Amino acid sequence: MTGGLTMNPFEQMQIKQGAFTATDQQVYEAFINNVDAVLRASATSLAEDFGISQPAITRFCQKLGYRGFSDFRSAVYQHHKSAGESSSPSTAIEWYCKLLQLIPAAMEDADMSLLVERLTTSRRIVTTGFHKSALSAQLLNFNLLKLGIISSFAPYDQLSVEQGITDEDTLVIFSAGSRVYKDILDALADTSDERKPHIVLITMSRKNPLNAKVSQVVWLPNYQNQNYSQYLETQVSFMVFIDLLTSALAQRTSQQS
Fold first, then answer.
1. What is the pLDDT of residue 209?
2. Cβ distance 245 to 139 under 8 Å?
3. How many whole angstroms separate alpha carbon 97 and alpha carbon 23?
4. What is the domain class of 93-256 according to CATH?
5. Which of 24, 134, 144, 157 could share a disulfide with 20, CB 3.0–4.6 Å?
6. Model pTM?
7. Domain covering 9-86, topology
């Protein structure tokens, strides 16, 4: 690592975020929302997974003061290793409990009654998610099918305006902060009104560039947007949200039967 760096890589990113270009911001969001991928993958595979050029990843790391991605990844590893050594499993559980207590309030802010009404009255539901968020989209799809709600999961790169989506359908996107859905949302915006579905974005970024392109935004807390010092798995908030939403849907469907 380049000499003189006394802050951890996450502090480096926070301090310099104000000077990020649009591409830098895309790399930043990919990194903070997929820390485990950063620790395991190469710059080449990350570039492919997140639709970012490898030179952009290298330039971003150098802007933070590192020689390149490998140097940055080593710093991330050392930071998480030291954080893990300084906190016991019980401490991590306490952080998870603190985070999960925020989810009900976030659901109230998102007007969950509107979402439940929409999901139980739509012609069909399409769920989708990018990278790890695809797991959450698949879980919601599975739960909807168990409740007898017509639903399907679509990988992010297989979504198309040619799929026969109409204004009677609902598209649910799980995206912690990625921009990969911009093109499909732009394409849907250009279609006729009868082919525009109700679009729900489940995200963890209040500045997600997709926010202005959807019908409803559900913002959930994670360790980054709460500025926690303890790393917590991002998908936990999605999974708990899905469990609470499924319970509300089950109650609604039982009332309708």
1. 80
2. no
3. 34
4. alpha beta
5. 24
6. 0.72
7. Arc Repressor Mutant, subunit A (1.10.10)
